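Hypothesis: this fold can be encoded by more than one sequence.
Test: take the C-alpha cells below, design a sequence, compare later.
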C-alpha cells in the first residue's frame, strides 16, 4: 500500500461496512462489523466478569482471521511501511464503526507482524484457513483482503498470488477471487 487519497479510503471504508454482493436479502451490515462487535467486547471484558458479556469467541476468531488475511495480502510484497500500516489501521478502525478500540487494532497488528515474522506467509495462510468453517466467511476474507489491497492502487501480481493461496486453503476456486476483485474494483470506481 501507499498513502491513499481520502476519497479512495472513504470508498473502501464504505464498502467494508456494507454486506457483500452475494449476501442474502435483508442482511444489513458486513461480517467484518458483526465480528468486530464481539472482538471489541471480548478485549474490554474483565477476566473476572461473571455476567453475560455478549462475547462470542468464534466471532472474535473470525474478526482476527479477516484482519489477518488482509494483513497478509498487504505484506505480500515484503514492503509494509509505517504509512501503509497507519492507513491499514485507520481503514479497519473506521470500518468497524467504533466496535473495536484503536489500542486493540494496534495490538492485533503487532501480534500479526510477530506471527508473520516467526511463521512465514504459508503457515499464516494455513492458520487463517483453519479458523474458518463457513463458505460465506471464507468469501468475506477474500472480499476484505481485495478491498484493502486496492488502497495501494490495485492488486499487484504478488497480492493476487496471496489471495490465490488463501482461496486454495479456504477451499474456494478462482471464481471467488475474481468475484471479490470485481466487486472491489466496481465499488471503488463508483
Amino acid at each position: 500500500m501507499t498513502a491513499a487519497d481520502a476519497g479512495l479510503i472513504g470508498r473502501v471504508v464504505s464498502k467494508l461496512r456494507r454486506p457483500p454482493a452475494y449476501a442474502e436479502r435483508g442482511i444489513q451490515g458486513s461480517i467484518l462489523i458483526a465480528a468486530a462487535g464481539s472482538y471489541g467486547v471480548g478485549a474490554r471484558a474483565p477476566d473476572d466478569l461473571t455476567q453475560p458479556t455478549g462475547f462470542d469467541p468464534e466471532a472474535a476468531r473470525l474478526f482476527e482471521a479477516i484482519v489477518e488475511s488482509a494483513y497478509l495480502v498487504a505484506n505480500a510484497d515484503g514492503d509494509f511501511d509505517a504509512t501503509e500500516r497507519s492507513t491499514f489501521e485507520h481503514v479497519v478502525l473506521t470500518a468497524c464503526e467504533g466496535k473495536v478500540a484503536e489500542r486493540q487494532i494496534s495490538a492485533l497488528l503487532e501480534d500479526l507482524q510477530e506471527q508473520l515474522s516467526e511463521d512465514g506467509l504459508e503457515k499464516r495462510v494455513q492458520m487463517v484457513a483453519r479458523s474458518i468453517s463457513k463458505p460465506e466467511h471464507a468469501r468475506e476474507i477474500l472480499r476484505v483482503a481485495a478491498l484493502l489491497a486496492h488502497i495501494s492502487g490495485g492488486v499487484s501480481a504478488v497480492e493476487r498470488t496471496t489471495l490465490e493461496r488463501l482461496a486454495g486453503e479456504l477451499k474456494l476456486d478462482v471464481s471467488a477471487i475474481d468475484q471479490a476483485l470485481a466487486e472491489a474494483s466496481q465499488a471503488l470506481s463508483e
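The radius of gyration is 16 Å. Residues 42-52 have pLDDT under 50 and may be disordered.
Hypothesis status: open.
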